[in-house]
């Protein structure tokens, strides 16, 4: 058994959407540290370019391709731009996402369309558009990987009124299973990560009130950059080759904690 390079991404090419900040950036930084060449995409060009510059400082390779993937045209445009540079892509991380909070009686149609388009539709159509490059990279000995970033809000019942967000993330988990079943015959392994509380512009509670949020987490802390990078590296590398269709929760125990366990943590 050769375990020396179990988590290495040396020589692999990855594309990460929403890679300029938050969870996408955490994953990009982790992939680069393991030797991958990483393309990041985000809607805001300046932020995307700046992050790529920062992540390339210590000898890594991070390349910015700004794009709005919330439309099918945008997803196809990003895939075309990447494949002009890289005919083979080993790893796709569908991370770009949006949230919308509003009360039940006031929740608008726009809050459904924006969130479902980016969180559920975009991962499918970008994966579809990237499939030729993923198939070229894939082999039985080294499968290509698609990692969808879901959320524990798609698994357990949150107290927040984010109707379209929870629907999109629950749907993405089921979509992950179906795409995994279809693409495994092409040696493309599809999985998902369901993050809990990590500091980001989307999760302002964890960002701004981390100590308070940590009191409600069995692990007694919010997630770190290393926690997120570690889970993604596992799924992207040889270490995760036998994981197909699964959603890995990275949440300090929240999603699967029983009410009794939560009560004990608060004592």
Tell me what you see in this structure:
With 267 residues, the protein is of the alpha/beta class. It has one domain (13-266): NAD(P)-binding Rossmann-like Domain (Rossmann fold, 3-Layer(aba) Sandwich). It has 9 helices and 7 strands, in the order E-H-E-H-E-H-E-H-E-H-E-H-H-H-E-H. Strands 3-2-1-4-5-6-7 form a 7-stranded parallel sheet, with helices on both faces. The longest helix is centred in the middle third of the chain and has 29 residues, at 109-137. The mean pLDDT is 92.
- CATH hierarchy, class: Alpha Beta
What is the CATH topology classification name? Rossmann fold
Structural class of the secondary elements?
A: alpha/beta
Number of domains: 1
Proportion in helices: 40-55%
Instruction: Sketch the topology as an H/E string, one letter per element.
Output: EHEHEHEHEHEHHHEH
Low-confidence stretches: none
CATH superfamily: NAD(P)-binding Rossmann-like Domain
Strand content: 5-15%
Report how far apart the termini are: 45 Å
Average pLDDT, all residues: 92
How many β-strand stretches? 7
The strands making up the biggest β-sheet line up spatially as: 3-2-1-4-5-6-7
Question: How many helices in DSSP terms?
Answer: 9
Identify the CATH architecture: 3-Layer(aba) Sandwich
Shape: globular
What's a concise summary of this model?
The protein is α/β, with parallel strands linked by helices and 267 residues long.
């Amino acid at each position: 058994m050769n375990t020396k390079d179990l988590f290495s991404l040396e020589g692999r090419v990855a594309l990460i959407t929403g890679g300029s900040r938050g969870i996408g950036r955490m994953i990009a930084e982790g992939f680069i540290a393991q030797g991958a060449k990483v393309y990041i995409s985000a809607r805001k060009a300046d932020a995307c370019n700046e992050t790529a510059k920062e992540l390339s400082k210590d000898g890594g390779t991070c390349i910015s391709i700004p794009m709005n993937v919330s439309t099918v045209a945008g997803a196809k445009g990003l895939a075309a731009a990447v494949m002009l540079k890289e005919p083979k892509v080993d790893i796709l991380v569908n991370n770009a996402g949006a949230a919308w909070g509003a009360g039940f009686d006031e929740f608008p149609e726009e809050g459904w369309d924006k969130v479902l388009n980016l969180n559920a539709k975009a991962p499918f159509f970008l994966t579809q558009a990237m499939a030729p490059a993923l198939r070229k990279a894939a082999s039985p000995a080294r499968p290509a990987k698609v990692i969808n970033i879901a959320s524990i809000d798609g698994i357990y019942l949150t107290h927040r009124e984010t109707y379209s967000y929870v629907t999109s993330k629950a749907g993405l988990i089921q979509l992950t299973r179906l795409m995994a079943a279809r693409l495994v015959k092409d040696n493309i392994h599809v999985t998902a990560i369901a993050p809990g509380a990590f500091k980001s512009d989307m999760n302002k509670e964890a960002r701004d009130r981390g100590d308070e949020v940590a009191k409600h987490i069995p692990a007694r802390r919010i997630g770190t950059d290393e926690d997120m990078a570690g889970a993604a590296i596992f799924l992207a590398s040889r270490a995760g080759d036998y994981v197909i269709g699964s959603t890995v929760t990275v949440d300090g125990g929240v999603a699967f904690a029983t009410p009794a366990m939560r009560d004990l943590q608060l004592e």
